[in-house]
Amino acid sequence: MIFEPDFFLSKYVKTVQDIYRNRSFLKQLSCIDSVVQLLASIIISAVETEQRFRQLDCLKVLRAIVKDRHDPELSQETVSLLFKLYKHYIFDHREDIQWCISALLRGRQLRDSELSWIIERYKESEHLANRLLRYPVDSPLVYNWVKKIYDEGGIDGRNSELLGLMIRDCLPDKIKNESKETLIWAVFYSRANINIKAALLEELYSEENVKSFIEVCMRLELPLVMNNILRKFYG
Fold this sequence. Notes:
The protein has 15 helices and no strands. By secondary structure, the protein is mainly alpha-helical. The relative contact order is 0.06.
């Protein structure tokens, strides 16, 4: 059954109750577009018709299938179904449901209308801010949001991530006066290629920030950058 998901689903999974009863099997399914689309549609239908069901358990099935799986990528139509669930549950009073539903969109590209919905409400939940700060591709909407938020004073505790989205091939002039500690982590979070990150880290090194410098270099697997700094400053 696990290796023929379409047959299994068409025969055994038609309601949210079926999802709950078969949850152990379903969690083992591959992240196939037709599978995700059907399960999401079943849950959406139950939500829209106000059925009583084990919501968290059913959402956990979807999470197990889609979390951090991007080969192949889901279709835009299927991602939009996941976003529909996200909109419904992200403000749920149960924190475990918020974290579960947030995982469904991690690393997923959204339609502009969906991104705009998140941008308009990002202050209402850390999960919404996370989706923007960790958005997987360059987006004019996200980039314009970043610049606007930075000009307004940034986000407490998240400025390195915010600045990281502004770094392309070099450090923008408007952020060069930030502390080197903040900029070192901004380089880490940026989408710049690894060679640009290496060059920027060498440029930002100082003895005052050696701990963060080493940690970022190790996370990015850049031992050569550390070796260059040792030769340059310590012979």
